[in-house]
Amino acid sequence: MFSFDNSYARLPQSFHRPARPAAARAPGLIRFNHALAEELGLDLEGADEARLAQVFGGQVIPVGAEPLAQAYAGHQFGHFNPQLGDGRALLLGEVIDRAGRRRDIQLKGSGPTAFSRNGDGMAALGPVLREYIVSEAFAALGVPATRALAAVSTGERVVRETMLPGAVFTRVAASHVRVGTFQFFAAQGDEQAVQTLADHVIDRHYPEARETENPYLAMLTQVAERQARLIARWLSIGFIHGVMNTDNMAISGETIDFGPCAFLDEYDPRKVFSSIDQRGRYAYANQPGIGQWNIARLAECLLPLLDADEEKAIEAANGVLKAFGDVFQEAWLELFKSKLGLTGEDPDDRLLITDLLELMHLGEADFTLTFRILSKVAGGAAVKTFTDLFTVPPPGLSDWLTRWRARIDDDRTAAERQTAMEAVNPALIARNHRIEEAIAAAVYGDFSFFHRLVEALANPYVEDPDIADLRVPPTPDERVTRTFCGT
Ligand code: AMP
Ligand code: MG
Fold first, then answer.
1. Residues with CB under 6 A from ligand 1
2. pLDDT tens, 204-245?
């Protein structure tokens, strides 16, 4: 089924432990991503649903797989834990996809490993469906993220606060190397392993770095840039990751670990959903600062590789951290300018954007709909459709609209402006209450709404009348105020 080529398994023994999936009584295929399987070049000849459930439920180890749990450490909510690792996941192996890119195939929720500590290594159905929905929503939005290849129910029960159905999720990633993977070796003072890992990462993700004078500095710089751009993308779609621990930050620049994540409904920069984020460390607007903090932790691990002279190494690392801030600011401005339909340059653009965000906050306006409907106003729709999004239209809203109208007045037609804005402002996001609704039905064996939601989210920029219900913000009764890690 797979043509595996397992470069991570060839790294030294300290990088991983062998792992075996647990037995599952009755694996059943929930969903399989045929388009992604095609992209990966999988050979599905003769693979019926039962066979897919066996393989992606961990009951049949495909030929060429070398299942292993990866070692890593990490800062969790600012506190360093030297020993985390794949406690409920295993890497089956790597394939080279049709575009020539190396991709990891990982099972999540497939049973305990050497790194499970007190955990059971299992995943409940809810978190598996959530990760499936949000990863594929990200793919359709064009935001870098790990992908969903399969979801399989195990027929086993997992014990959380209540008994829940178990499931296995198959995740595809450019790699699963995290900031925490570097920290694992750096914390042990194993500089050789840090270098081996950095070389692996350069070969895999940043081959151009090899051609520069200081490849490790070039690698760090590029990781920082990708993360800065990624977090700007998150903010542009109203996304809150929820658990930006250093073990949940991928070196590839892909969004990873859709645990307690959530999309904003009404705009609030301090918004937090995760039940365990009591101090709001990972609030919406804190994400760029946390991203930079995580990159600082990565830079610390790499110091001995950056320069033999420690002071020079620190200076280089500080340069990267500053660049992170600059790249983020620039990417954020570009993204929000296009969301507002602003072309060219104007020194007041940043203020025009932040003023709108402040009005949205005051008026509790829905993040996604504000930009979508503003696109229509740019195309000639009535202003009332926009002002109606605010619970109480805040003073200053009509002044803001006047400023905005003057600013977007370029040589495009109104229709052209609307088309350009609608192409960057999604009509549909994976709203929390819809995800919860899909999970609630699935726990009772009805997967129809889950499938409908996944299919709808494949086209976030078009307004299909058949899915109008999925675009609507929650009613007060439907609002989700808390999300959970699902561990
Ligand atoms: P997370 O923040 O969800 O990515 O998980 C943090 C750490 O906890 C990782 O090392 C996971 O492998 C581990 N973990 C989470 N859930 C479980 C579980 N059910 N069993 C074992 N380990 C787990
Ligand atoms: Mg994690």
1. 84-88, 116, 119-122, 243, 245, 248, 257, 259, 485, 487
2. 999 999 999 999 999 999 999 999 999 999 999 999 999 999
